[in-house]
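Example A, followed by Example B.
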Amino acid sequence: MQLKVNWLDYILDDEWEIFPAGGATGDAYFAQLNDKRLFLKRNSSPFLAVLSAEGIVPKLMWTRRLENGDVITAQHWINGRELKAQDMNGPDIAHLLRKIHHSNELLDMLKRLQKKPLHPEEILLDITKRLEKEKDLSKLATITEGLHFLEMELQNIQYEQKVVCHCDVNHNNWLETGDKQLYLIDWDGAMIADPAIDIGLLLHWYIDKEDWDSWLELYGLELTDNLRLRMKWYVVSQTILSILWYNTKDLQKETQHWINYLQSLTS
């Protein structure tokens, strides 16, 4: 369904066709005029320009500031596909994630945007505070076991080399073009943190454990006991946060899914 969006009236002529691009904010759109295609978003982070320059997201075409201070960005609209779960063991995934984690340009930009490094103590405190408001969940044995694991291992998973982490490496955020160019999109949750956040989620969700060594070799890491522990710590913490989020949205099917997954991690 074609739309007309007020803030786009200042950017595009009437000839453009505009369609919603989905997403939680409702501030993203596709626009098309003949053979010209754009992905438009309101108030994207300035981080987008560096991601584009690094070839991590589709090319940034232009940026416009409206009179009310809103910033509109236009990216090249690619003809690509979202990866499926079975695609996530490919070498290009490991290579792009390594590039992201080793990029000084991305790290410098997040620091200029006043992003502070995320420490595991902050994650644990956030979980504890949220559980105080969710009495029923806090009494679940699975949640209790997960929280106990996080508390017991907190001092054993300290890691000083913080990098830029995407923090949501779900297969839906990976796009591949027809000529096999790979992109990682949706950077709203990016943090400066332990790379084990991204690596751990990706390996636990998508890669068979017997293949972890070979995947990490593609990335450029050895599977040590410390890395294995750090990955598990962040996967457990993110799983508890997912349980809390879905529960507040009263999405019981999804809540139970993540409770079952947490049980598989801690059993």
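Example B, a separate protein, is given below in the same form.
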Amino acid sequence: MEISNTYIESFIQPRSALLLEMEEYAQEQHVPIMQLPAIDVLNQLLRVQKPSSILEIGTAIGYSAIRMASVLTNCTIVTIERDLERVRLAKEFIARSEVSNRITVVEGDALEVDVESIQSTFDAVFIDAAKGQYMRFFEKYSPLVPSGGIIYIDNMYMHGLSDLDLKDVPRRKRTMIRNLKTFADWIMAHPEYDSTFFPVGDGLLICLKR
């Protein structure tokens, strides 16, 4: 039996006026932010893990960074975004939040930024950027996560496209989905990680470093 959206939404945590404003902006301007059930699950997992530092790949307008910092009162977050307009908006929204002193926005391509010059290790990494580059993001930043750290990855389901044969995927998205499928197979067989897929939101992958 499929669970109704109304029932799922009854478990979603209430949000501040700022977060509701950000959600409305994201919907109107077609800015991708994490789906509400998924961000609630992510935050609950973070409460259990209790990381003191998080690296986020893909800031967008700063929504998930604010949400994560709000439930982890002793955690600092470094978040990377390459889109200049989104960097500007993220900084504005974050400045209006109550957690601005614990979030650092880094402007640049996550595949080129030297994050180690800012911080050498992170208890957790959250990847939510270019889906076709997940393998490269993982390979670049997983060495910064110590044993026992966790890498969280959103959008593994890609609105159902990941569940299709490539021939049924729109041509313009085939390379991205092929890369995403390759990454999924690779990480599930990785000897250094215990990984679990959560069918929530658009698909959340949790990778615990052994």
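On Example B: The domain at 15-209 is CATH 3.40.50.150 (Rossmann fold).
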